[in-house]
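Sample A.
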Amino acid sequence: MEKVIFEILSKGIIISTNSSKFHKEATFLLDDDNFNSLNSTLNKIGLYLVGEYGYFYLSKDLKSDEEEKYFNSYKHVILAIAQLKKVFVHLD
């Protein structure tokens, strides 16, 4: 089952407990032992299994050069959002 789940998550697909398509996989990941086992395996290759509110997805730490590249690519969007938050302080 872990191989199947990895193949799904590595494509950027989010597994949800609300999904009829991935119900078996979500049920498997809801078990703490299964979740921790798969997360431990993924940690060895620099990935993290994230489970929040019935949603499961893969994450990874960005290296410093990747962080800089990401920030430079999206800095205009980040700055625009920051400015909008100043104007619309009542919005979250």
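Sample B.
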Amino acid sequence: MNEIIKNIKFDDKGLIPVIAQDYNTNEVLMMAYMNKEALEKSLETGKAHYFSRSRNKLWQKGETSGHYSCFYREICEKEGLKETQEKVFD
């Protein structure tokens, strides 16, 4: 996990843009941001965690709706992260 994170180039605010896509169709579901902690939690738990810039805190996809998203794999590039996930699971 540390190898993945150390190769990520976070911006000056400690964030990286993330594109969430459906695992089966590659449909783009959303664009969000992760900080190091959100990426660590996503890799550790298998559930998508993000950083809310407006609330200045972490959030987990599904924490209020109950419709969680799996964090299946990541394709890391220096300035972005493509997250492939199931749309929803309970």
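B remarks: The first helix runs from residue 2 to 6. The CA atoms of residues 51 and 58 lie 4 Å apart.
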